Amino acid sequence: DAKTTQPPSMDCAEGRAANLPCNHSTISGNEYVYWYRQIHSQGPQYIIHGLKNNETNEMASLIITEDRKSSTLILPHATLRDTAVYYCIVRVSGTYKYIFGTGTRLKVLA
Amino acid sequence: SAVISQKPSRDICQRGTSLTIQCQVDSQVTMMFWYRQQPGQSLTLIATANQGSEATYESGFVIDKFPISRPNLTFSTLTVSNMSPEDSSIYLCSGDASGSFNEQFFGPGTRLTVL
Prior knowledge:
The complex is a heterodimer.
Chain A: E1 9-13, E2 18-23, E3 33-38, E4 45-50, E5 55-56, E6 61-64, E7 70-75, E8 84-91, E9 98-100, E10 104-109
Chain B: E1 4-7, E2 10-13, E3 19-25, E4 31-37, E5 43-49, E6 56-57, E7 68-72, E8 75-80, E9 89-96, E10 104-106, E11 110-114
């Protein structure tokens, strides 16, 4: 099963782009990368997922490197409400099972 | 999308007792899962709750300690048995509504403290 590595914490100024990196160097070819965030005392909330193409939705963009060994979640204009722990997750191939990484605690500063 | 609720939201229990946590989804989901989140830590998958059959447990988790039921497509329970202070954690359930690997929806969690 692939594992993910994330920096434990990051700060970002309000209104600026937050770029959260994730390393998943052992990911296999058909394993998806998912991003979730967890705001204090709540359950994780889905953000975005991808396989090999870059993805964008109303919340964020996901950039996956060509070799798929790493990815970056981009919050284009961070707000104070984006302060949370962000998890990069690999879904085990052929299953619904998620393997959560340790997460990055993002603090958006006013 | 699916909305997931859990009961209780929190509890304080005595060592040696058991607690059953309920997870209710507002629509049918294909898969349901139970996770544990120890203080300050990430989420660890406990088991997959299978409808009408025994749950599938991850390494390090056993049925005697964490019996799980899933009688239908919208409801599941997790029991934490013979509790010790090491079981103090947040327990979360999740569901996959679409069956197409798009996203899982998580409940708000049950915060358990064992004295």
